[in-house]
């Protein structure tokens, strides 16, 4: 049975712990190790996570039988549009409905406060794109995001109408 718990700044160590169990493996076949190292520091240092929370990102954990098995983050982008900024589940959870449970929770949460769409970015070579399409997301844009140090995120912007 899955449950959701909202995260606070006190949970930053747990976010980082889960991140390091999921993130590098997710991108090992897509990104170079130096880019992975840079992006982990850029997005998942304790100071970066704290700043994201202070700027309105709601982090959540998904638990299965009282064990944390994944996390997500989302925020209000404007004009009743929210962005799913992060969603990662442990490799052992993939294919078990964990990701769908998390997205269903987020959709329910943001619809209650008037959201009309949920957007996300996914690397153009990430197989997760197929998962998002099964959940009703469609590609609305192909974009390269400059993240500094000469690195870019080569993503699709996808959107699900609510």
Give the tags.
alpha+beta; globular; 162 residues; 36% helix
On the 0 to 100 scale, the average pLDDT is 95
Radius of gyration: 15 Å
* N- to C-terminal distance: 25 Å
SS content category = alpha+beta
Tell me, what's the shape?
globular
Q: Please work out how many helical segments DSSP would assign.
A: 5
Largest sheet: 7 strands, mixed
Q: Name the strands of the widest sheet in spatial order.
A: 1-2-3-4-5-7-6
Structure description:
This protein is an alpha+beta fold and 162 residues long. It is 36% helix and 38% strand. The protein contains five helices and seven strands. The chain has a seven-stranded mixed sheet, sandwiched between helices. Strand 3 and strand 4 form a beta hairpin. Helix 1 (12-27) packs antiparallel against helix 2 (33-44) and helix 2 crosses helix 3 (46-54). The longest helix has 16 residues, at 12-27.
């Amino acid at each position: 049975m899955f449950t959701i718990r909202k995260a606070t700044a006190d949970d930053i160590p747990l976010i980082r712990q889960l991140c390091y169990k999921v993130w590098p493996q997710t991108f090992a076949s897509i990104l170079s190790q130096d880019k992975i190292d840079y992006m982990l520091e850029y997005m998942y240092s304790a100071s970066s996570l704290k700043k994201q929370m202070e700027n309105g990102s709601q982090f959540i954990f998904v638990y299965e039988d009282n064990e944390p098995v994944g996390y997500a983050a989302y925020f209000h982008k404007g004009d009743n549009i929210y962005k799913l900024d992060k969603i990662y589940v442990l490799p052992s959870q993939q294919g078990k409905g964990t990701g769908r449970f998390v997205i269903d929770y987020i959709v329910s949460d943001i619809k209650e406060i008037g959201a009309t769409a949920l957007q996300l970015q996914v690397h153009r070579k990430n197989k997760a794109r197929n998962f998002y399409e099964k959940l009703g997301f469609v590609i609305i844009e192909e974009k390269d995001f400059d993240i500094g140090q000469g690195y870019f995120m080569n993503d699709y912007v996808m959107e699900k109408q609510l």
